[in-house]
Every structure is written in C-alpha cells, then in structure tokens.
C-alpha cells in the first residue's frame, strides 16, 4: 500500500462525504477507493469511518487522523511547490573539473562573471589533467579539451583549441628556423607527455598528412613548464594557443611552419545525462558559450 496515496483517498472521501463522489473526483473506481481506505484502516489497526447506507461519519480516531493527514498532505504539497520553484532557480554547490593550465589561465574571469549572474550557486573547481569519472567522483560537469568526446557523455562544444608550433627568437637565431615538419628531427623539441602519442607530432600541408618523430632534452606532463622552457630559448614546442597566445601576440614566441596545420581540438562542457538536468548545471552550460567568441580571446594573436 502506498500510504501517501491512501491518505489522499481517505481525506477525499471525508471531504466528499461518500466513496462514490470521491471516486468520481479522483477518476478511479469506487472499489479502488473502498480498498485503499480498508487497507489504511488495517494498517492502522483502527476504524476511521463509520459506514451506513445513508451516512458516512468519522470515528474519533478518524477525526484525529484526518486532521493529521491534512497537515501532512499540506506539507508535501508545499515542499513540492518549493522544489518546483527552486528547480527553476540555479542554487547550491556546482562541482566542476577542468584541465590544470586552462583552468589557471582562463577560468577565473568566467567563474566571476557566472557568479555575478547567479549568486546563489557555490562553485567548486578541481583542476586535473586526468580523465575523471564524473559520476563516481561526484562532479556535476567537466571542461575537457579533446578531438572528440566519448559517446557515454553529453558534450557541448564551446570553443576551438588551436595547436601551434612555436619557439623563442633566441632559439631560432642560434639553431635556425625549420621550413618543413621534417626539419624538426634536427631540432630540440620540448615534449608533452600526458598523451598517447608522445614524441609524435602530426601536420597537414602541401604534401598531405605527415607524422614527425621528434626528440629533445626536456619532457613533462605540464604545458606551462614547456612554455617556460621555450620562452627561455631551450627548444621548440607544439602547444595549445590558450597557453601561449599572449606570447605569440607579444613576439616572445614565434609561430613556425605557417604553411602546415596541426590537428585542432575543441573545448567541451561534458556531463553525464540530459535527463533531469538541474538549473545550476543548465545555467552554467548555457552561460559559457555566451562568454566565448570565435576566435576565442586567447587567439587574439591571429588578428595582429
């Protein structure tokens, strides 16, 4: 027996004054109404209603129980109404996972603007370059940089992530400027290790697609360390423009191999499911694209 349903039926019988009228109002059979009331009395081990051919009246226990039922059902209705209102208003804790370097460089102004628009949302961000399990680790959504997203997640594309090959003028002055991807084999290349293809850089150009095996004296899983090494003149990097865009704009790094392109990635907002999406998640997902432009702010160097 669903006790809440039985309580609703019982109060309707009392208010209507008969089983038949209650059944009509609830759009169920009279026998179903009678059965639910009987089950409720059996569960409580007491008679709630005095029945006769002409009259239906409450017992003393029924009168007390009816009053409590009205209170309980009223509380339930109020709670559902409040939840419905809250469901339209972003509030509560929003847990986000994001890549380390991107988060450090670009998330702070985005989060500040979001919280100005939605002050009832508490944002918690964990920066990590590993691919986490959103559900298992309790995150509402993640920002991911990838070529494509697994089918097990819902993804919304936010911005293009360009991968560029670059070096400091001081390095190029000493070692020369590569003219083709094949020339990279003769240069000190600074290698990002947090990926499946360490030491292999892909290009597309006049001669089609080419993969170059590169090597160098510095390897790390942190893009900012590679950037700093490149700025110091230690070698050539192949890095996302969100990390080195300001360096390209200022001339601290020089873009290489302009006739060749590298595979482009994208920034995605990913979350487990479209069903029952809370207002806080929906508001954040809808907010981000409005803050992004194409090209994104970190690619300002392209217009200089």
**Major pleated sheet:** 5 strands, mixed
Query: Oligomer, anyone?
Result: single chain
Provide the spatial order of strands within the biggest beta sheet. Answer: 4-3-5-14-6
Query: What Rg do the Cα atoms give?
Result: 32 Å
- Low-pLDDT parts are none
- Summarize model confidence as the mean pLDDT: 88
**Shape summary:** rod-shaped
Number of beta strands: 14
Q: How widely separated are the two ends?
A: 72 Å
Per DSSP, the total helix count is 10
Share of helix among residues?
Answer: 40-55%
Q: State the secondary-structure class.
A: alpha/beta
Spell the H/E element sequence.
Answer: HHHEEHEHEHEEEHEEEEHEHEEH
- Strand proportion, as a percent range, falls in 15-25%
3D architecture notes:
With 304 residues, the chain is α/β, with parallel strands linked by helices. It is 42% helix and 22% strand. The chain has a five-stranded mixed sheet with strand order 4-3-5-14-6, covered by helices on one side. Strands 12-7-13 form a three-stranded antiparallel sheet. The protein has a two-stranded antiparallel sheet with strand order 1-2. Strand 9 and strand 10 form a beta hairpin. The longest helix has 29 residues.
